[in-house]
Amino acid sequence: MKNIRSQISMVFHLDKCIGCHTCSIACKNTWTDRKGAEYMWWNNVETKPGTGYPRKWEDQEIYKGGWEKKHSSIDLKGVGKIKGMKKLFHNTHMPTMDDYYEPWNYQYEKLFDAPEGDDQPTAEPVSMITGEKITPKSGPNWDDDLGGSAEYARKDFNIRDLSPAEQETMFQLERMVMFYVPRICNHCLNAACVAACPSGAIYKRGEDGIVLVNQERCRAWRMCVTACPYKKVYYNWHTGKSEKCILCYPRLETGQAPACMHSCVGRIRYLGVLLYDADRLQEVASCDESELIDKQLSLYLDPNDPEVIAAAKKSGIHDSTIQAAQKSPVWKYVKEWGLALPLHPEFRTLPNLFYVMPLLPAMAEMNEDNKYHSAGKSLWDDMENPRLPLKYLASLFSAGNVEVIAEILKKLMAVRLHRRSVTVGDLQNDEIEQLLQNSDLSPEIADDIYRLTSLAHLNDRFVIPPAHREEAIEMLNETHVHKGTTGFGFTKKPKRGL
Amino acid sequence: MNATLFFVILPYLALLSFLMGTIYRYWFMPFLVSSLSSQFLESKKLYFGSRPFHWGIIFLFFGHLTAFLIPSTVLAWNQIPLRLYILEVSALTFALLFLTGLILLVIRRVESKRIRQVTSYMDVFVYVILMFQAITGIWTATFFRWGASWFSIVLAPYLKSVFMFNPDANAVSQLPLVVQLHIVGAFVLIGMVPFTRFIHFLVYPLSYLWRPYQKVVWNYRNTEF
């Protein structure tokens, strides 16, 4: 434990997401509502089952993203020092605009300018690339709420391991099941985009672990687009530079939550610091797939442990950051309570966005008449036959490990039943106690989980460490000299090169 | 052709423009240094155009460079006719590869409406000058044979004299017109590097091969970017 670093990480509570896309719009309006970035959704919300955005992004046989195990080590799957340099003139596995969608707008001005005629004027869709009239064929969330499911949900990458019968169950109308997965950049510990960038333009910030693209160093070799298995690096076709989620670092540095999180209607999002052992990254990223989840979670260190605190101070982590780590909601969900898992850990990038498993879509069982019902004695007596196959969740969140998922769902269920016994009181107390014990929970912890899940205030959900920019500035400059020398934000127009 | 203008003044103008322009653009307008890839908008046709184009031009570039840097070695190599033939034929092959790629790229840019949106006047210039060089170059290789040898005798000394600031354009001005045009085109191309997307070959990411995969930048520790 010599090299401890701090990472701003996130938890999204999937049971709370209502799929309203407010986060996407907040992000779009703040950062990507401009030429070349129209198709970029640094934050997007996907309906699962579904193919996601860009289409089928999870299928690395198509896109060759992320890392793959090679003997005792790992290597980038599609790009990297040798494979990538060979693809510099044409990147074989790069998604094109058609894998996303051609952005369009409507001719709203026609509603006002159209000459008088027999028909109502219409606002026809026009491409935002060519300016010509187009018929939109796909959009960033056209599979929303299972819309067009033959095209989308049935082509979901994660149902490949389910039996035909299980697949069928998911799509029969009366048993239809879905949930939302909101996604942003995972600001990975072993970021594939950073490793793939030939120019060295992409980097991880040491202090908070945010991954950024230096726009002045990016040369459009576009290896990052292929390398990111989550397809969260986007190529700006206008400026010829890659862009990605910046975790609203200008907001974080001033103590505000990122726009997507701040605007979240369901309050599903949590943000906080995790301390981790940077010396173990290599070992963890290259371990066996069955150990990936456990090993990644073991990277994060207990911020209340005096040894960790001492080591963190030695590594130059600010006291205020350690304090933030101690109050971090992410630490609670991920480590203390063990309720949240990263998305597709098998990509081996060690992502720092964790998802609390969705209980609601799974919570129901099959009746004799082959219909699901959710009104059993204890809401969910038997986990053997859930409406949403646990294998499906395991494919998404645990590299196929079904036990981890079942454990989390049981825990969440125990918390629910505990709260029901507190507020309604129609359940046997000893049964509830047994359930809690089975999940290693005490009534106090269950109450804590309930509180942070349902009642948390803004400052409980977002524990943002001070950025201490003043110290950073002092390293470069005398503060009184620096004062008043920089403008407010991006002052030059992002003009395309010749 | 006016020897002084085209073979004495022009090369220095081109070099001056190349040096000052690229340094200025790299240091003061780094946002504008990019290969401006359009693969995102159109990928299939790019595959067939870009690969032969780039491999062709890289071979030709290093071929010309070798003939300029070590003319006597090239001459010695060409002593045996078979070697000369191999050199000439492979150079011509790469030139044709380059021309094929270039034509496919031009067709792609004209055909694709999306690509036309990201085509600047400078891109048109790039295509014109490259096409000009390809045609004059292949013409030279076909009708004024054994350039692999006479380049070393006529052009290498001339270029050396330019770089030694003692320009001697006598021999060059005696060359056939097409060859002269090819040389003038080359100077124009070099001079225009900082004003076009040509600049991306100067930032070819060689250092990627020896840097560690992960990159962390610290504010407090003031690490160099």
**CATH fold label of chain B:** Fumarate Reductase Cytochrome B subunit
By DSSP, the count of extended strands of chain A is: 17
- CATH homologous superfamily identity of chain B: Transmembrane di-heme cytochromes, Chain C
**Helix coverage percent of chain A:** 25-40%
Percentage of residues in strands of chain A: 5-15%
Number of helices of chain A: 21
Structural class of chain A: alpha+beta
Summed up, the domain count of chain B is 1
N- to C-terminal distance of chain A: 49 Å
Radius of gyration of chain B: 20 Å
Q: How are the strands ordered across the major sheet of chain A?
A: 13-12-1-15-14
How much of the sequence lies in strands of chain B comes to under 5%
In angstroms, what separates the terminal alpha carbons of chain B?
49 Å
Q: Could you say which structural class the secondary elements and strand pairing of chain B correspond to?
A: mainly alpha
CATH structural architecture of chain B: Up-down Bundle
**How many domain regions of chain A?**
1
Low-confidence stretches of chain B: none
DSSP strand count of chain B: 1
Instruction: Kindly report the average pLDDT value of chain B.
Output: 92
Q: Which oligomeric state applies? A: heterodimer
